[in-house]
Amino acid sequence: MSEPGHNPDNLTSDPAGSGTDTDPGLRAAFGEAVLALQQLVGSTAELAAVEARRAVTAAGWILALGVGIAATVLAAWALAGSALAFWLVAEGWSWGWALLLVAGLNLLAALLMALAIRRLASRLGFPALRRTLFRDRRRQTDAEPHQPVGTAYSE
């Protein structure tokens, strides 16, 4: 004798014993959905891995080409400095003063680039985002009004 709602021959019967059977089509559809989701996740992960490899390869080539560009620009800069020194000597300057002027121009260019790097380096710590996320309202003054999120930040 069996209990109501319990059918040992039908494994799809409702476990709560309500007497209604679970729709086998619903179980099949759920299984297909889970399988499709697994395939989607797997395909997406494979695509991400392939693109990551391509990105690393591209970054390597970009770095190598950047080094080549830097070497070419350095050679051109040296030739321009040499041409300036030769021109100054042809205009009557001594070699010492001509080379000193070229060295001074090189140092001036280096100083300007160092100042630009110093200015840009302050952005490496995401200053606007940090101010927005970690703002201490007690320390905010009227001289420092709140800047709404999404407004342009420039330095």
UniProtKB/TrEMBL annotation:
Keywords: Membrane, Transmembrane, Transmembrane helix
Region (Disordered): 1-22
Listed Polar residues bias regions: 9-21
Segments crossing the lipid bilayer: 61-89, 95-117
Protein name: Phage holin family protein
